[in-house]
Write a structure and sequence with these properties.
- The protein has eleven helices and 14 strands.
- With 324 residues, it is an alpha/beta fold.
- The strands form three sheets. It has a six-stranded mixed β-sheet with strand order 6-7-8-3-9-10.
- Helix 3 packs across helix 4, helix 3 runs parallel beside helix 5 and helix 9 packs antiparallel against helix 10.
- It is elongated and about 80 Å long.
Amino acid sequence: MGKLIEVDRVKKVYKKRKTKERITAVDHVSFHVNKGEILGLLGPNGAGKTTTIKMICGLLVPDEGNVMIHGYDIVKDRLKALRHISAVLEGNRNLYWRLTVKENLEYFAGNRGFGRREITPKIEELLVRFRLKEKENELVNNLSRGMQQKLAIAVAMMADTDIILLDEPTLGLDVETGYEVRKLLRYITEEEGKTIIISTHDMPVVQDLCHRTVIINKGKVVADEKVDQLIQLFDTRAYTIKLGDPLTDKQVLELQQAFPMYEYGDRLLNVTLEQENDIYLLMDILRGNQTKIEKIDRTAVNFEEVFMKLVKGAGEYEKVPSSS
């Protein structure tokens, strides 16, 4: 599987307005995107994710490192690199609101150098595929948010690039439309052979769609792994323990120091271990006051829990051996 995007130790530093303070937004971030995959690029607000996206799209120049798209340097060969990527920005900013659905498709295809004769069949195909045919003569300003989002993705498809970057593709959509957008994105990768990067806070979308995820926090990559393997990793370390006795203040303090992500209440202890062998440390803490243990269960986790544990500092993670 070839690498279409390679982000190599990129760094970006900003100067605060009216001060001399320098803030490192992205601190030597590296990752790649494989051909034909859906990659989730995630991070909390202020983590450096948006700055990274802007460097990939050529909107910002890295202070250090480089971004290669289809073998072209985004700075040195900007135009050649950008021929291979199109972006759907949050808020549907890549649409003209006073043009109709069809006019938007024609306009942006023309911007990419396509002639009317060659794009007409493609436009008709996309209007049907994206269920926009009945709205083809409607002004974008009059469309629902879901219709606008589908049109924005269709516009990106008109560019016929290898890579499509989607910023919050399901933000503000109802359940039905969100499901429809997911279905379209699967079609784009599986049938059209496109590569997709999704930047989102919608964790169910990541768990449902993404093959792999790169999580950025405080300007650094804290995880780069297949989604199912990350879930498997944290699933094997998450425990719910029903206690027969309340914990002492000393035990609570020891838990706080050893397991920052623990939760305790009503004699139920939920804890995620950083290392599998930490189970012995946990048992030592409970044994310290001869605390009775009535039941121990491994807890099933979802990707939202995995994400929160990683960005809140659950510690270094060990990669799960790949089954492929």
